[in-house]
Amino acid sequence: MYSDASKFAGGAVITQKRRVGPPGDPGEEIEVPILFDAFTFTKTQTAYGTYKRELCAIVEFCRKFDYMFRTNTPAESIHQPHTPTIQTIFNSPPESSFAIRQ
């Protein structure tokens, strides 16, 4: 999943790796987009800082398309232009303000 957020909206594209080449030939793998989506932030969400808006977009898309991440293969990747956001998700203690609660 590739995700990004601006001051007013978040967007994402979910891709899938597919092999290209003649039948029986392993060929090369390419990423093919299988889903595009976007949403506008609420008035409250537009007041969030940059990293929190990025995280909000990731959480929104993971919740909305959770069925696409249920797989027996190894963990999928979330790509977005702000590396500190991903570090925040995986390195923050559970009691931090960025903790994801259901």
Features:
single chain, 102 residues, alpha+beta, Ubiquitin-like (UB roll), 3-stranded antiparallel beta sheet, 3 helices, 27% helix, 28% strand, elongated, disordered C terminus, hydrolase activity
The proportion of strand residues reads 25-35%
**Which structural class is indicated by helix and strand composition?**
alpha+beta
CATH class wording:
Alpha Beta
Low-confidence stretches at least 5 residues in length (pLDDT < 50)?
A: 94-102
Identify the strand order in the major beta sheet.
1-2-3
What is the share of helical residues? 25-40%
**Number of strand segments:** 3
Shape: elongated
Tally of discrete structural domains: 1
Gyration radius from CA atoms, angstroms: 16 Å
The span between the termini is: 21 Å
CATH architecture: Roll
Q: Quaternary state, please?
A: single chain
Looking at CATH, which topology would you report?
Ubiquitin-like (UB roll)
For the largest beta-sheet, the strand count, sense and barrel status come to:
3 strands, antiparallel
GO molecular function: endonuclease activity; hydrolase activity; RNA-directed DNA polymerase activity
Domain Reverse transcriptase RNase H-like: 2-84
Keywords: Endonuclease, Hydrolase, Nuclease, Nucleotidyltransferase, RNA-directed DNA polymerase, Transferase
Protein name: Reverse transcriptase RNase H-like domain-containing protein
